[in-house]
Amino acid sequence: MTNESSKSTRRQRKPLPLPVSIAMIVIAVALVVAVSIGNIYANKYSDLISVYFNQPTSKVVSATGETTEHFTSDYANDDEREKALATVGADIVREGATLLKNEGDALPLAAKSKISVFGQSSVNPVYGGGGAGSIDTSSAETLLDGLKADGFDINPTLVDFYENGAGKDYRRTSMDAYGEGEFAVNEVPADKYTDEVTGSFDEYGDAAVVVIGREGSESQDLPTGKLATGYTYLQLDDNERDMIAMAEQHFDTVVVLLNTVNPMEIGDLESDDKVDAVLWIGSLGQTGADAVGELLNGTVAPSGHLTDTYAYDSLGAPSIANSGSYSIANSSEMFATSYMAYAEGIYVGYRYYETRYEDVVLGADGVGDYDYTKAVQYPFGYGLSYTDFTWSDYSLKETDGGYDVTVTVSNTGDAAGKDVVEVYMQSPYTDYDREHGIEKSAIELVGYAKTGLLEAGDSETVTIHIDKESMKTYDADGEGTYIVDDGDYYFAAASDAHTALNNILSAKGKSTADGMDEDGDAAFAGKVHVGAQDTRTYAKSMATGTKITNQFTDVDLRSYDGSFTYLSRSDWTGTWPKTYESGSWTAPDEFVDALKIDTEQTEPESAPVTNSQDANYGKLNVSMLMDTDYDDDAWDALIEQMSVTELDQLVRIGGYATKSVDSTQLPATVDKDGPAGISSTLVGGENGMGYPSEIVLAATWNDDLAEKFGKAIGEDSINLGVAVWYAPACNIHRSPYGGRMFEYFSEDSMLSGAMTAGVVAGAASKGVIATVKHFALNDQETNRMGLAVFANEQTVREIYLKPFEMAVRDGGASAMMASMNRIGSRWTGGHKGLMTSTLRDEWGFKGFVVTDQASYNVFAYEDMREGLEAGTDLWLNTDAQLWKLSNADMTDGVVANMQRAAKHISYAISRSNAMNGLSANSKIVKVTPLWRWGMYALDGVVTVSAIALVGVAILHIVRRRRTAATVLAVLPADNTSGKPDMK
């Protein structure tokens, strides 16, 4: 073909139809718009995206020869580390699993027993909880594999029934962190078991192991009402009862495993003489399943003790009257329309059950119709073993600053085991207390110790130090500070709270003739007499010397309703809690007005200095101050080097990562949940080891193991590059129905605080910034965003703040997470009495406070100006534009508060493993993460493609117009057909 022919052919090609050309332009525009929107969101959430893809945004250039690894692993390689961490997870179950019943020494089972494992939870066990506290279960050891690994021969027909047969259609469900789903047990009905399944029981008939599962989740409390089954979620339903009856029909030995994270009503299991043993195993984490087999075969003897009271009626606790959702009828503020009254005061858990029991024995007025034996099935601190322990040689001696309680524990049984010695104190309940509204629990935990492994015949003498400060109580209405009452103080050693109280009552001369359910042992109770009330010693902080005064008057509901009363042991029946205002409260105007955000700032005497270099110090960087005291002026000089823009970004954009600061060479951090191990659940990236829930750790009553757990978190922190850990969590088990109960330690403040302090200290030894949460009074999930919580000052301090205080004073905590709720009218992060006067001035806290989730406009009540003024430092915000203040709002007061916050953040980071690789002469260099390069490449491809599409479309549109023009040109003037003249 000639060139001329080729040109002619090209000229004769038809242009694309006009709709196709237009479509190409539309596609090109859509691509450009989509990429533009993508770039906008990528810029807004750049830090979060980097965390999700586990990609660094900076690197460190170090001077040659300098030592820059400040925190290092204890292990030589990844395999060694992972094996060690897996062992920690299993150890928590080994020591936390709690034996509640063991009739006829049914446990341990014989080695290599042929057993049948019942319940859909046998193939779908509870590994943890939902939300921030969840773990990656994809690599978790299954319960059945754990049992097999420990020598048990498992009935395969029954397993297949649950995995592939009719049983596969029945699975436990719960609501997730977003409110989706429902709480349902969904156990397999008895009539679904086939003859083939029941026929397999004879061959695997050494024992029936029945698994009962319950779980919880962030954002949702467990329902207190009856489910469709006719039972509450914490009761055994008919399908479970039928399953247990089936096991009893076919097996001589029936063992129930409670794979649960909330205390259940299990009175039926206690009274059923065909249920031989009940073992609470909590949640398993990734590696706890292997420990269950060891516990069942006796390789390990259970040594856990309960962290909560197990009541026959879980709805009988005084907190139940005010748990759930109650509205403020006349409030229109966003997330300020619900409230909660802690009307039970200090009487949470055993503090209620045991105190009312003592008042019955003492014949107190107003005690009402109360029978402890019908109320409590297993007391707080209860736990059995496979062996027997005998205690002797109790002594109580005064030492510097306190008292030492000493007990000798002897293993008089046949198996090796560990025992727990618990020490409880009783304070005098005086006329002064009654007059001024001070409440006293009949007993409160003040110390404990766990023995080492005692072989049969071995003994160990344990000494537990009780600080005299434990004797103080808060007198809000009288002295307005802490006091020590005059009178007799008893210190009892026992295996649980109820036994301790009986020992004290015995020391007072009481017996079963006075209404005690059993006689105590006075030999394990000592007495200390205080001759005069002390109003001075603890009126100042033992940590800082600061004068202590009321900080939470505004949190007390009596400030707004003078007729409101809290539960009092002076009149149990007359003060028994009722649902306040029947669930809908028309609040006084004073309170409604106080719900509004307060943006007023304290203006400094002189304008803050920024972008400056101090003449005395020269150019500083954070590495130079790694060992510099918090109060040193060098810290102020360092912070003054920062620009207002740097201050703003550091404080305002702190969700799952903190910003690096060029002027001070502060390194960026990666921050992640969760309490059961560093988790990718909410933000992606890599997971660390997934451990059993905190409630299981607390059940170990082993402070050393708590610290070991913290160090294990530290190992993952170093390996994963996650310096800030949003955990541990230490709110209180106020109600058995708390949805996040798995994530918290106990109903008791002292046990919660000791565990938290141990975990924090262990994590800090590896450079982890443990962010203790949720500070504070976030003890239910329902309406937690903006919920106005009311409690009196004694309750706030002695029950709900004590774990946080111990985390700071005993554990050295360097970070806190403000809760989403209000206390009184004020969001916790905006309450200066909490965030500054108490946390910093009284306890001596020197780290930073970060908000809970603040990445969306709906969290507007967590206002940055209010929070900064109160003492909150960092916003858990991933949106680069959110919370940004106008120039007019960036007053000197705001900037000064940002500088204070920046100091707190910088100080905490300077003590963390985020400093690994840094020295005084190193430099942080920002790098572009790989996902950014991917975005740039995508931008380029889309831009070129869009240009090409538009170009081709325009070309064809032009051709069409030219073709049309040519056609019109060749038509004769009288041709009206629209077709060329073909003659």
Set down the secondary structure blueprint.
Elements: H1 3-12, H2 18-44, H3 46-52, E1 58-61, H4 78-96, E2 98-102, E3 114-118, H5 143-149, E4 153-154, H6 156-163, H7 195-199, E5 207-214, H8 238-250, E6 254-260, H9 267-271, E7 277-280, H10 289-297, E8 310-311, E9 326-328, E10 338-341, H11 350-362, H12 372-375, E11 376-378, E12 389-399, E13 402-411, E14 420-426, H13 431-436, E15 444-450, E16 459-467, E17 473-475, E18 481-483, E19 487-494, H14 497-507, E20 525-530, E21 584-585, H15 589-594, H16 633-639, H17 644-652, E22 657-658, E23 669-672, H18 694-699, H19 703-720, E24 724-725, H20 749-764, E25 769-775, E26 788-790, H21 793-809, E27 815-818, E28 822-823, E29 826-827, H22 832-842, E30 848-853, H23 864-870, E31 874-876, H24 892-910, E32 923-926, H25 930-970
Helix pairs in contact: 2-25, 4-10, 4-19, 5-10, 11-14, 17-24, 19-20, 20-21
